[in-house]
Amino acid sequence: MPTVKVNGIEVEVAPGTNMIEAARQAGVDIPHYCYHPHLPVAGNCRMCLVDVEAGGRGPDIACNMQARDGLAIRTDTDNVKRMRRSVMEFLLVNHPLDCPICDQAGECRLQDYYMEHGQHHSRLADEKITRTKRQDIGDLIILDADRCIACSRCVRFSDEVTKTGELRLFNRTDHTEIGVFPGTRLSHHYQGCLADICPVGALTNKDFRFQKRSWYLRAEPSVCDRCATGCNIDVDHDHGEVFRYRPRRNDAVNKSWMCDFGRLSYKRLAAEDRILTARGPEGAEGVDAVLAGLAAAVDAAARDHGDGSVGLVLGTRATNEANWAMLRALRAAVPGARVFLVEGNDPDAFDYTDDLLVHADKNPNTAGVRLIAEADGAVGDAEALRAALADGGLRLLLVLADDVLARLGEVRRPEALAFFGTWANATSEAARWVLPLAAAQEVEGSFTNFQGRVQRLQPAIPAAGDSRPGQVLAAGLARALGEDALPAGAAGVFHDLAANVPAFFGLSLAGLGAEGALVHREPPTEQVAPPDTRPAP
Amino acid sequence: MTQQVPGPEMTTGQKFYVREVLQGLWITLKHTVRNVLNADENFTIIDYPDVKKVMPERYKGAHRLTTRPDGKVKCVACMMCAQICPAKCITIEAGEDPDDPVEKYPVQFQIDMLRCIYCGFCVEACPKDAIRMDTGIYEINGFTRQDLIHDKAYMKDLKAGKKPLAEDWYREHPEDAPPGYDVKAPKLREGY
Ligand code: SF4
Ligand code: SF4
Ligand code: SF4
Ligand code: SF4
Ligand code: FES
After folding, report:
1. Which of A213, A215, A243 to mutate to test the interface with B (most CBs of B within 10 A)?
2. Whole-structure pTM value
3. What CATH number should be reported for the domain whose range is A96-216?
4. What was the ipTM of the complex prediction?
């Protein structure tokens, strides 16, 4: 492990670490544009120039300087300050200063570094060189070539990450212009990431365009719930109104990326088809009244037709806690209740899969529910449910989150159906009792992604309408069924889960950490490489 | 922490404030008598609302949205004014104009004049000189609260001058002029 010195502070770093990262570990921030931790080093912006004190020759760029024993750099010399100011002046020579109409303003590296390191006056006496503004180059991207500082991050992203290679820097020197090849458009499904990595306002998000100035937004950490990968996200909201999702770095899951389907799924939080109120046979009622009605029906069915007439379908779209709490509640009140797990995708899932991030399974918690089902030992699959419905023995079916009727296709419907879900679907239409389940971004809990990585959810925004987290609805149902002694709260339910499901042994909700924690077993679901759906270059 | 600053020592007589109160009343009375005796010189009576006072040039009146030569508002909906406004009374809805090279414009721009404290920060903050308080309009009134939410259509190029200036009015209505006012050589005091 090489030991390097940054401004006299000694740090030991992993071999291969570059000096920007080494300095970060020493608590020193080196300004940079073109370097990105998940892209190859290009070294063309020169913003990261530092003085080399020992172990090399300088000044040199920190992004391309690998840590080696004896290397000592300084970032606080007058020389470094002068170099940074000069680089800023150079980058801003032809810059349009569109800040009032630029969506990047507030999170723009040019603005930040100008205030920190520039503060010069323009010495340009000639006309600025201008380039093409407002180009519609993709479904999610507007390109303003005039604002580009030619850092080539976007070029490297499309070459190395999506491997579609649509973007290039054309021409040379002052006339360098970023663009797509004539007549082509961005074709991949990670376009939003281009707006994220562009350090200036050249590539901006079309969906977010002029919607909100960035400084009004608060970012809260969460996890995307649109596929089994579980990309880590920041939910950017203004007083509970969500304006965008952005990927949050997690090197073990999504690096710094997320797909456009997930990115745009923030719209589902305030979508028309959200289930916001509880509905019973008599129409809309309070959540507690509907739960009481449902509990009475569960009691009656178990009494008149035996425990086996009551069933529960676990939800691959609900949290570990919601599933575990529902299972516990029902098993406590009706020990012989039948439990099922129906895997598959709902009709509202998006139809795209690749080998970068997007998993074929569009449910965020299939792996977690599988582990719970395994530990329970008596959970039937889709075939078992179909058979139970066909013989009519199953009279009352509780469904958690998934559109089970659509997944099963043609089946004999149970006499009575209760649906705990977030969005209206075929199952909620057919249900006699509908209970509003809060969305993943609104609850405390956890998802287990396809790798078996348990990732923590924290409420980023308040739950919409009357909706409540699954463990709260389950606790309400348990109370209505006369079971008061079950663990409550997300942390309590997770604790109980971790004590009873072997794969979760030793985990705690608070201890999951920023990267999440793997469950105890071989990652079971290796991604299968799907057919290449990208158009030929 | 607040600090107690000791005041001057007062005698027992002073503590009753009788002399001080009478002194104050005397000053008021003195000025009243002096003003009434020289009314022509000391008062300018304006027949508001028929006649309107013209405010000093730098008076901060109702806001105006300035325009470009092509008639569109200069504002680009950058939200700087809304951001700085201490009363948080500016609401702007941004939109995109596909035909305009400026790209961004305010679809709606509202100022709640009931909440505005006339600090003028919005004018200072604007990078486009798109908002000014130079109309001199001080009659910011209405019959409903809604009337007092000035919107883009109202503020666009808002000008004073719905009411005649005092000079113009007295020229046409000499009978309204204050006593001693010479219509031919108006000598209203500066600012009137
Ligand atoms: S890229 Fe940055 S500096 Fe340039 S106009 Fe946009 S916000 Fe301003
Ligand atoms: S468009 Fe943005 S990311 Fe691409 S080269 Fe220009 S500044 Fe860099
Ligand atoms: S004058 Fe002051 S209070 Fe009134 S709108 Fe402008 S910034 Fe707000
Ligand atoms: S600061 Fe000026 S340009 Fe920006 S929104 Fe306000 S009035 Fe419009
Ligand atoms: S970050 Fe090192 S040269 Fe750009």
Report:
1. A213
2. 0.85
3. 3.30.70.20
4. 0.84
